[in-house]
Amino acid sequence: MDHLAKNPANYVALSPVTFLHRAAAVYADRTSLVYNRTSFTWRETYERCRRLASALRSRLRVSKNDVVSVLAPNVPAMYEAHFGVPMAGAVLNTINTRLDARTVASLLRHSEAKVFLFDSQFASLAHDALRHLLREDQTGGGVIIPTTTNIPIPVVIEDPHAGAVPRASHSQQPPQLGGLPLEYEELIAAGDPSAELPALADEWDPIALNYTSGTTSAPKGVVYSHRSAYLSTLSLLLQWGVGMEPVYLWSLPMFHCNGWTFTWGMAARGGTNVCIRHTLAPDIYRAIADHRVTHMCCAPIVFNLLLLLGAESSRRRGDLGPPVEVLTGGAPPPAALLEKVQKLGFRVTHAYGMTEATGPALICEWRSAWDSLPGDQQARLRARQGISVLSLADVDVKDAGTMSSVARDGKAVGEIVLRGSSLMKGYLKNDTGTKEAFRDGWFLTGDVGVVHPDGYVEIKDRSKDVIISGGENISSVEVEAVFYGHPNVSEAAVVAMPHPHWGETPCAFLALKTSDHVAAALEEEEILAHCRRNMPHFMVPKKVVFMPELPKTSTGKIQKNKLREMARELSIDFHSNS
Amino acid sequence: MDHLAKNPANYVALSPVTFLHRAAAVYADRTSLVYNRTSFTWRETYERCRRLASALRSRLRVSKNDVVSVLAPNVPAMYEAHFGVPMAGAVLNTINTRLDARTVASLLRHSEAKVFLFDSQFASLAHDALRHLLREDQTGGGVIIPTTTNIPIPVVIEDPHAGAVPRASHSQQPPQLGGLPLEYEELIAAGDPSAELPALADEWDPIALNYTSGTTSAPKGVVYSHRSAYLSTLSLLLQWGVGMEPVYLWSLPMFHCNGWTFTWGMAARGGTNVCIRHTLAPDIYRAIADHRVTHMCCAPIVFNLLLLLGAESSRRRGDLGPPVEVLTGGAPPPAALLEKVQKLGFRVTHAYGMTEATGPALICEWRSAWDSLPGDQQARLRARQGISVLSLADVDVKDAGTMSSVARDGKAVGEIVLRGSSLMKGYLKNDTGTKEAFRDGWFLTGDVGVVHPDGYVEIKDRSKDVIISGGENISSVEVEAVFYGHPNVSEAAVVAMPHPHWGETPCAFLALKTSDHVAAALEEEEILAHCRRNMPHFMVPKKVVFMPELPKTSTGKIQKNKLREMARELSIDFHSNS
After folding, report:
1. Top-level CATH class of A470-577?
2. Helix ranges restricted to H, B211-280
3. Residue A419 to residue B388, Cβ atoms within 8 A
C-alpha cells in the first residue's frame, strides 16, 4: 500500500499562499486590512496580490526564485508583498528599516535582488543604498564602475502618511533606470488579476529570505521554504490560540521573520490586519479602540511605551471587553512589568525563537494548575521559554561536545537544539554557515539552557553571555532579571569583565527611568542594595555603570559586544585604582 | 537558493506520532486518558505505546506496512493502537464494530491483516470472523481448506467492563494458533519501552486503513499517509478551536476515520481522553460532570439520546461552566433540535466529510455577523456544510461532465470536489476505484451541492443511494445486492425512510418471482431471514414492502423518487402505529 501514487489532488505542495486563495473564496467580503482610511476586503487583497504577481512577471521580468526586496514599515504594500511576490514564483526579502544604507546595499548585493520596493519614508535610505550598489565601493572609495546588471529595479511605495520627505535633497533622486513603472500603485494597476500564475510544484522551493541582524558576525540570509512557512503558520495560530475573526494589530514589524508568520496566518483565519506606520503608544491605543484589536505581537520594549501612556488610556480601554492577546519575544518580560501591562488589558504570552526557526520556536504555554501558585513562583514559571510549537518535531538541550541530552532536572546546562520541518532551508550562499548550524540531525540555536522536569526549557544564557567567575557559571540573564525587578531600572545589561583573581566577574550597565541626576545618585545606592539582597554574593557585579541609554543595534538589541569592550577598559582602570 | 539541501534537522517526515513523543516530554504528568477507574498520564501512555510497538515487532513479527486490525469500542487499547501500531511501522486498521462476521472476515482477508486485536465484548464476532477466514467460504459452503498464512494473530483485549460474555458459547473458543501472547495486557507487558523503533523515512508511508461502509459496492480500503493524518489533525484542531487543556469525550467511535483524527489531536494538545465503552446518555452526562468535558464529537443521533435524558440532567449540568463544544457530522441537525441541545449546554458545530478526506472536510464556521439575524435565517445558514478545513488546498463544485466550476450563486448544482494533502492516498488493491475517485486533479465526493455567494458549500443531494442511519452510511446498492442474492427476488429497491431515532433507516421494496400469493407469504419470511443472515444488523431494512412490480420510468429504471415518497408516507404510519 506504499505504492499508492501521489496525484495532483492528494499531494498538493504546502504553501501559505493557498490561505489567500481560500480567504478570497470564503471570507471575500470581510475586511482583510485597514490602514488609516484605506481598507480592503479579502477579495480585494487577493486581486491586488494577483495584480502584483502578474506585474512583477510581465513588467519587471521577475521569474522563478528571483529575489524581490522590500524596505517598508507595516503598510498595505508590505502585506501584499507576502503573497504577491511568492505568487510570482519569486522570493520575498524584507529588509530591516533601521539598517544603514551601506548594509542595505550589501543585502541587495548578496541577495542579487531583482526588484527593490521601498516606502517613500525610506526613500533616502533606499537611494543611498542603490548609490552604494552603483559603485564598486567595497572599500568606500575607488573608481566608480557601474555594474547595472546587479542593480534591482526600484519601485517606490508612495504614501501621504509617510511624512515630510525632503524632496529637495539630492539623495531623493532615484538612480536613472529607464521608463519602467516605478510607483507601487502603478505596478498594481499594470497587473492583470486574471493572468495565469505559475503553480508551485515543490513545497521545498524558497518563499522568503530574511537576513539575521548579525549580533555575532556578518548578516546571514536565512531561506524559508513554502513548506516551512506553511507549517509554522498553522502551528503558531494553533499554539497561540488564534480563534475565528481575529483583529490583528501590526505592532511587530513584518520584516521580523515575516511578522512571525502572522502575515500569512491572518489570511488563514480570515482575520483583519490593522496596519500602523509607527509603533507608537497613541497609535496602538487608538487602533485597539477603533478596530477592537484581539491580537498583537511585539518586542518587550513596546510594553514600556504602552505603560507610559497607560494611565490615561486604561480608562478608555476599560469597556473594550476581553483583553488583547499579546505575543512577545526576546527576553521574558520581568514579572513586575507583566503585572502592570496585564492591568492595562493585555494578556501576555512569551515566546522564544529566531529567524532560522521562522520565528517563535518555543512558547511558554501557561497551565491552569499554575493559577493557584504564589506570585513569585508564577513569575519564575512565566520566565521560562517553554515548550516547542507543533511544527517542530523536537527540542532538546544537549552537551555541545558529545551531543548527548542533558538531565531534565532544571540544572544541567547545555545547548538548545531544534529539529523539524518549520526550520530554515539554510543560509544563502553560505555553505559553511549552513553546515555549522546543523549537527547530527539538529539545528544548533547557540543558546544555553536547561530542561525542567516538566519539559519546559529555560534559557540560562545566550552562549556568549555566560560569565565564568571562580569556576561558577553566572548567567547574565539572571543577574539582569534582578535589576529589572527594581522599579526604577529601565535597561540592564550584564557582561563579563576580566578579573585577575576570579577570571571573570559580572559588570552591569544600567539605565534608569529617573532623569533627574540628583535623584539618580540616590537611586544608585538603593539599586545596588536591592541587587545584594536578591542574588548570591558571587553573582553581584563588581562594577556597575549608569548610562542614560544602552547602545543598541538597528533592531533594538543591546550591543553587548560594545559593552564587553567597555568592561575590558573599565577593568584596567578598576584594577589599577584598586 | 532552491539548491539548499534537505537535512535530517530541517526536513522531518510529518507524522501525528510525533505529537505523542512531544506530549510525553511536555505534558508528562498530565492525565492522558481516563476510563472507568483506569487513568494514565502522557508519560504512561507513551511508555505503553512504545511497549505495544516493540511487542508487535519482536513477539508478533509485525514489520513495515503490515496491517494490524482492531475491533474494539473506545477503550484505552483502541487509543493506544493509534500510536503503537504506526510506531511499529505498521498500518492501523480499525473495524466498525457494527459489522457482521462475514464482512469483518472479508476486511481481514482484503487487508491481509497480520494481527487482529479485538475487545472481549466482540469476542463472538471476532471468532466467527476468524472461522470464516479459516474456510474457503466465498460461496457459503464447500470443502474447508485451512489457509493459515492469511489468518491474523488474534489478541483479545480483556476488560471487566466488557459485560457478561457467554463463555459457554462454542463461538467463544478462539481458533488455535499456538502459544503466542494472546491477551493485550500480556502483549504490553512483553514489550520493551526502550527498544529502538523504526524511524519514519517517508511521510507518504501509510499510517491507517479505514474501510468505507460501502456506499456504492464492496467496502473500499481507504489508505491515509502519515502526512495526510498530520495535516488533518493540526487543521481540525485549529478549525474547531481546540484550545489548551481540552478534555475530550469519546462519544464518536475511534473507528470512524480514527475519531476524525482527534485520537492524534489530543496528544498534540496534551488533552485528556475520556473513554466510554457505550455511547449512552447517562454515561455521557456522567463523564461530562465527572471530568469537566470540554469537547466531544458525535453523530447527530446522539443528540436524541442526550435530549431524552436532558430534562433530568440539565440541572446537573447547570453549574458546570462553559458549554461543551460538540462537532457533529452527517446531515445538519434540524434547527429545533439544535436549539434544544444548546439549551442543555452543548454548543454544536457541524462538519461534512468522508473517510477519503480523513474525516471532516468542510466545517460550518459560524460568523458573528449572523448572530443578529432572525432565527429562520440562522437555521438556513447553519444547515450549510460550510468552508474547507485548512489542510485542504481547495474545494469546488463542478459540473461532473465538463469539470468546469458552477456559478457561485447558491443555485447552480454540481459535484463537490476536493483537493489537498489531507486526502487519502487511494484505495487498497483497487486501482479502478482509485482512478475513478480522482479526476483532473480533484477528488470527487459523489455528493451534489451548490456554492453560495459567500463561499459556503451546501449539499443538495447525497449521491442518492446513501442512507445515513445513526451516523452510519448504508449503501442502498449493497442492501439491494443481498436481496437480489435470493433466488426468488425479481426486483429490489432500497431507499431512505425518515426515522425519529436513527434519522434515516432503509426501507425495501421488493417484487417476487412467485406469482402465487400463499407461496409469497411464506417466501417473505424466508427472504427477511436471508437478509438478516447476510448483512450487518444496522443495514437490515426496518420496513419491507412487497409489490407485484416496482414503479419504473419509460426506459425501465426503477423510480426511486416515487419510492422515497412512499417511504415518507409509510414512515408516518409506521411511527403512529408503534
Report:
1. alpha beta
2. 226-240, 257-260, 262-269
3. no
Parse chain A into domains and list their residue ranges. Answer: 62-223, 392-463, 470-577
Q: What is the DSSP letter of A40?
A: E
Q: For domain B467-577, give the fold.
A: GMP Synthetase; Chain A, domain 3 (3.30.300)
Query: In Å, what is the CA distance from A420 to each residue of A499, B11, B318, B353, B463?
Result: 42, 6, 44, 30, 41
* ipTM of predicted assembly, 2 dp: 0.85
Residues of B in contact with A27 (CB under 8 A): 455
CA dihedral (A244, A250, A251, A252) positive or negative: positive
Q: What is the DSSP letter of A89?
A: T
Share of chain A above pLDDT 70, in %: 86
User: pLDDT of A90-104, one tens digit each?
Assistant: 999 999 998 888 889
HEC per residue, A423-476 = CCCEECCCHHHHHHHEECCEEEEEEEEEECCCCCEEEEEEHHHEEEECCEEEEH
Q: Does B238 touch chain A (CB under 8 A)?
A: yes
Q: B2 and A365 in contact by Cβ < 8 A?
A: no
How close does chain A come to B235, measured CA to CA in Å?
Answer: 7
Using CA atoms, how far apart are residues B62 and A2, in angstroms rounded to an integer? 16
Integer CA distances (angstroms), A455 to A361, A377, A410, B25, in order: 14, 17, 9, 5
For the domain bounded by B17-195+205-228, which CATH number is listed? Answer: 3.40.50.980
Which residues does chain B have within 8 Å of residue A441's beta carbon, measured at their own beta carbons? 7-9
pLDDT tens for residues B435-481?
Answer: 999 999 999 998 888 999 999 999 886 665 678 787 777 777 778 87
Q: How far is it, in rounded angstroms, from Cα A477 to Cα A483?
A: 10
Full-model pTM: 0.84
Given a cut of 50, the residues of chain B with pLDDT beneath it are: 137-146, 148, 166-172, 175-181, 215-216, 315, 578
A420 touches B at CB < 8 Å: yes
With an 8 Å Cβ cutoff, is A253 touching chain B?
no
Q: Is A241–B244 a contact, with Cβ atoms under 8 angstroms apart?
A: yes
Residues of chain A with pLDDT under 50: 136-146, 148, 166-172, 175-181, 214-217, 315, 578
Alpha-carbon distance of B279 to A306, in angstroms, equals 52
Minimal Cα distance from B265: which residue of A? A390
Q: Count CB pairs under 8 A between chains A and B.
A: 172
Task: Give the residue on A whose Cα is nearest the Cα of B5.
Answer: A425
The secondary structure of B433-483 as a DSSP string is HHHHHEETTEEEEEEEEEE-TTS-EEEEE--TTEEEETTEEEEHHHHHHHH
Task: Give the distance from CA A349 to its chain's centroid.
Answer: 15
Pick the CATH number of A62-223 from 3.40.50.12780, 3.30.830.10, 3.30.565.10, 3.90.180.10: 3.40.50.12780
- Pick from A8, A12, A206: CB nearest B2: A206
Closest chain B residue to the Cα of A11, Cα to Cα: B421
Q: Please indicate whether, in this complex, the C-beta atoms of B1 and A206 are within 8 angstroms of each other.
A: yes
Give the one of A1, A205, A418 whose C-beta lies nearest to B428's C-beta: A1
Domain at A392-463, CATH class? mainly beta
Classify strands B426-427 and B324-328 as parallel, antiparallel or unpaired: unpaired
